[in-house]
Design brief:
- The chain has nine helices and two strands; from the N terminus they run E-H-H-H-E-H-H-H-H-H-H.
- By secondary structure, it is an all-alpha fold.
- The protein has one domain.
- Helices cover about 65% and strands about 5% of the residues.
Protein backbone atom coordinates (compact mmCIF):
# COMPACT_ATOMS: atom_id res chain seq x y z
CA UNK A 1 0.00 0.00 0.00
CA UNK A 2 3.04 2.27 0.27
CA UNK A 3 5.11 3.13 -2.79
CA UNK A 4 8.56 4.75 -2.78
CA UNK A 5 8.99 7.83 -4.94
CA UNK A 6 11.67 7.78 -7.63
CA UNK A 7 14.33 9.11 -7.68
CA UNK A 8 15.22 8.70 -3.99
CA UNK A 9 14.65 11.76 -1.83
CA UNK A 10 17.61 13.32 -0.06
CA UNK A 11 17.45 13.77 3.70
CA UNK A 12 17.03 17.46 4.65
CA UNK A 13 20.00 19.37 5.99
CA UNK A 14 20.89 18.88 9.64
CA UNK A 15 20.13 22.51 10.62
CA UNK A 16 16.50 22.00 9.58
CA UNK A 17 16.25 18.88 11.73
CA UNK A 18 17.70 20.83 14.64
CA UNK A 19 15.14 23.61 14.10
CA UNK A 20 12.30 21.09 14.22
CA UNK A 21 13.68 19.53 17.39
CA UNK A 22 14.27 22.92 19.01
CA UNK A 23 10.75 24.14 18.21
CA UNK A 24 9.09 21.06 19.60
CA UNK A 25 11.24 20.82 22.71
CA UNK A 26 10.76 24.54 23.29
CA UNK A 27 7.01 23.98 23.12
CA UNK A 28 7.27 21.01 25.49
CA UNK A 29 9.42 22.98 27.96
CA UNK A 30 7.03 25.95 28.12
CA UNK A 31 3.98 23.71 28.30
CA UNK A 32 5.44 21.56 31.08
CA UNK A 33 6.80 24.53 33.04
CA UNK A 34 3.38 26.13 33.40
CA UNK A 35 1.74 22.78 34.15
CA UNK A 36 4.08 22.11 37.08
CA UNK A 37 2.62 22.35 40.57
CA UNK A 38 5.46 24.49 41.92
CA UNK A 39 4.89 27.01 39.10
CA UNK A 40 1.22 27.30 40.07
CA UNK A 41 2.12 27.73 43.72
CA UNK A 42 4.67 30.45 42.93
CA UNK A 43 2.21 32.38 40.75
CA UNK A 44 -0.41 31.95 43.49
CA UNK A 45 1.84 33.80 45.95
CA UNK A 46 1.95 36.73 43.50
CA UNK A 47 -1.65 37.02 42.29
CA UNK A 48 -3.41 35.42 45.26
CA UNK A 49 -5.05 32.03 45.65
CA UNK A 50 -8.50 33.13 44.47
CA UNK A 51 -7.13 34.65 41.27
CA UNK A 52 -5.07 31.52 40.76
CA UNK A 53 -8.15 29.34 41.15
CA UNK A 54 -10.24 31.52 38.83
CA UNK A 55 -7.84 32.47 36.07
CA UNK A 56 -4.85 30.13 35.92
CA UNK A 57 -6.44 27.27 34.03
CA UNK A 58 -7.91 29.54 31.34
CA UNK A 59 -4.59 31.38 31.04
CA UNK A 60 -2.81 28.05 30.67
CA UNK A 61 -5.26 27.02 27.93
CA UNK A 62 -4.75 30.29 26.02
CA UNK A 63 -0.98 29.99 26.36
CA UNK A 64 -1.13 26.40 25.07
CA UNK A 65 -3.12 27.50 22.01
CA UNK A 66 -0.71 30.37 21.30
CA UNK A 67 2.49 28.33 21.58
CA UNK A 68 0.93 25.48 19.58
CA UNK A 69 0.00 27.90 16.80
CA UNK A 70 3.47 29.48 16.90
CA UNK A 71 5.19 26.09 16.74
CA UNK A 72 2.92 24.98 13.89
CA UNK A 73 3.67 28.19 11.98
CA UNK A 74 7.43 27.68 12.27
CA UNK A 75 7.21 24.00 11.32
CA UNK A 76 4.94 24.62 8.32
CA UNK A 77 7.23 27.40 7.08
CA UNK A 78 10.21 25.03 6.83
CA UNK A 79 11.00 23.35 3.50
CA UNK A 80 9.89 19.74 3.42
CA UNK A 81 10.31 16.65 1.24
CA UNK A 82 8.03 13.73 0.50
CA UNK A 83 9.44 10.36 1.42
CA UNK A 84 6.60 8.10 0.33
CA UNK A 85 3.59 8.25 -1.95
CA UNK A 86 0.62 6.70 -0.15
CA UNK A 87 -2.06 4.97 -2.16
CA UNK A 88 -5.73 5.86 -1.54
CA UNK A 89 -6.51 2.63 0.32
CA UNK A 90 -3.68 3.24 2.80
CA UNK A 91 -4.80 6.87 3.24
CA UNK A 92 -8.32 5.69 4.02
CA UNK A 93 -7.12 3.15 6.58
CA UNK A 94 -4.90 5.71 8.32
CA UNK A 95 -7.71 8.27 8.44
CA UNK A 96 -10.03 5.66 9.98
CA UNK A 97 -7.44 4.86 12.66
CA UNK A 98 -6.91 8.58 13.33
CA UNK A 99 -10.66 9.15 13.61
CA UNK A 100 -11.08 6.21 15.98
CA UNK A 101 -8.27 7.55 18.17
CA UNK A 102 -9.74 11.06 18.21
CA UNK A 103 -13.20 9.74 19.12
CA UNK A 104 -11.71 7.61 21.89
CA UNK A 105 -9.94 10.67 23.31
CA UNK A 106 -13.11 12.76 23.06
CA UNK A 107 -14.96 10.15 25.14
CA UNK A 108 -12.74 11.16 28.06
CA UNK A 109 -14.85 14.32 28.30
CA UNK A 110 -17.84 12.22 29.28
CA UNK A 111 -16.06 11.98 32.63
CA UNK A 112 -14.45 15.43 32.54
CA UNK A 113 -16.23 18.81 32.51
CA UNK A 114 -14.85 20.36 29.30
CA UNK A 115 -15.53 23.97 30.36
CA UNK A 116 -13.77 23.30 33.64
CA UNK A 117 -10.94 21.50 31.81
CA UNK A 118 -10.15 24.60 29.72
CA UNK A 119 -10.80 26.98 32.64
CA UNK A 120 -13.85 28.86 31.39
CA UNK A 121 -16.11 27.81 34.26
CA UNK A 122 -13.60 28.95 36.89
CA UNK A 123 -13.00 32.28 35.13
CA UNK A 124 -16.74 33.03 34.92
CA UNK A 125 -17.13 32.31 38.63
CA UNK A 126 -14.15 34.53 39.45
CA UNK A 127 -15.32 37.47 37.31
CA UNK A 128 -18.88 37.25 38.62
CA UNK A 129 -17.65 37.32 42.20
CA UNK A 130 -18.83 33.83 43.08
CA UNK A 131 -16.80 31.47 45.23
CA UNK A 132 -13.98 29.78 43.37
CA UNK A 133 -12.41 26.70 44.85
CA UNK A 134 -8.65 26.83 45.18
CA UNK A 135 -7.30 24.34 42.64
CA UNK A 136 -6.19 21.14 44.20
CA UNK A 137 -4.83 17.98 42.72
CA UNK A 138 -6.39 16.16 39.81
CA UNK A 139 -9.47 14.02 40.27
CA UNK A 140 -9.07 10.26 40.21
CA UNK A 141 -11.21 8.94 37.35
CA UNK A 142 -11.28 5.23 36.60
CA UNK A 143 -14.54 4.76 34.70
CA UNK A 144 -15.45 5.01 31.03
CA UNK A 145 -12.42 5.17 28.72
CA UNK A 146 -10.28 5.48 31.85
CA UNK A 147 -11.10 1.84 32.56
CA UNK A 148 -9.48 0.93 29.21
CA UNK A 149 -6.29 3.02 29.46
CA UNK A 150 -5.05 5.43 32.11
CA UNK A 151 -4.26 8.19 29.60
CA UNK A 152 -6.92 8.29 26.84
CA UNK A 153 -6.02 11.84 25.75
CA UNK A 154 -2.37 10.91 25.29
CA UNK A 155 -3.40 7.78 23.37
CA UNK A 156 -5.55 9.97 21.11
CA UNK A 157 -2.62 12.34 20.52
CA UNK A 158 -0.25 9.49 19.65
CA UNK A 159 -2.80 7.99 17.25
CA UNK A 160 -3.48 11.27 15.45
CA UNK A 161 0.19 12.16 15.06
CA UNK A 162 1.41 8.68 14.15
CA UNK A 163 -1.25 7.89 11.56
CA UNK A 164 -1.39 11.28 9.83
CA UNK A 165 -1.44 10.09 6.19
CA UNK A 166 1.40 12.14 4.72
CA UNK A 167 4.94 10.80 4.76
CA UNK A 168 7.31 13.76 4.68
CA UNK A 169 10.58 14.20 6.52
CA UNK A 170 9.25 16.99 8.74
CA UNK A 171 6.07 15.06 9.55
CA UNK A 172 7.99 11.96 10.61
CA UNK A 173 10.34 13.97 12.84
CA UNK A 174 7.49 15.89 14.46
CA UNK A 175 5.43 12.72 14.96
CA UNK A 176 8.34 10.91 16.60
CA UNK A 177 9.08 13.79 18.98
CA UNK A 178 5.36 14.29 19.72
CA UNK A 179 4.92 10.62 20.58
CA UNK A 180 7.91 10.77 22.93
CA UNK A 181 6.41 13.85 24.58
CA UNK A 182 3.03 12.12 25.06
CA UNK A 183 4.70 9.07 26.62
CA UNK A 184 6.76 11.32 28.89
CA UNK A 185 3.59 13.23 29.86
CA UNK A 186 1.85 9.96 30.74
CA UNK A 187 4.79 8.99 32.97
CA UNK A 188 4.75 12.38 34.70
CA UNK A 189 0.99 12.16 35.22
CA UNK A 190 1.33 8.69 36.76
CA UNK A 191 3.92 10.02 39.20
CA UNK A 192 1.67 12.96 40.12
CA UNK A 193 -1.34 10.71 40.69
CA UNK A 194 0.72 8.26 42.73
CA UNK A 195 1.83 11.10 44.98
CA UNK A 196 -1.80 12.09 45.51
CA UNK A 197 -3.63 8.76 45.72
CA UNK A 198 -0.90 6.34 46.73
CA UNK A 199 -1.93 2.69 46.89
CA UNK A 200 -5.34 3.35 45.34
CA UNK A 201 -3.70 4.60 42.16
CA UNK A 202 -1.03 1.90 42.32
CA UNK A 203 -3.78 -0.74 42.22
CA UNK A 204 -5.36 1.10 39.29
CA UNK A 205 -2.02 0.99 37.46
CA UNK A 206 -1.84 -2.77 37.99
CA UNK A 207 -5.25 -3.35 36.39
CA UNK A 208 -5.34 -0.68 33.66
CA UNK A 209 -2.54 -0.14 31.09
CA UNK A 210 -1.09 3.31 30.50
CA UNK A 211 -1.46 3.73 26.73
CA UNK A 212 -2.00 0.45 24.87
CA UNK A 213 -5.33 -1.30 25.63
CA UNK A 214 -5.04 -4.93 26.62
CA UNK A 215 -6.58 -7.54 24.38
CA UNK A 216 -9.46 -9.49 25.86
CA UNK A 217 -10.65 -6.73 28.20
Amino acid sequence: MLQHEWPPIAVPAKPQVFVLMAVFFGFALIHSFFAAGWTKNFIGTIIGRRALAGLYRLGYTVLSVVITAAAAHVILSLPDRKLLVIRPLAVGVMILIETAGAIFGALAFRKIDFLEFIGVRQAVSYISGRTVEVPGDEAFISKGVYSVVRHPLYLAGITVFTFFPFFTMNRIIVSAVADIYFLWGAWIEDKRMLDQFGEQYRNYMRSVPAIVPRCGR
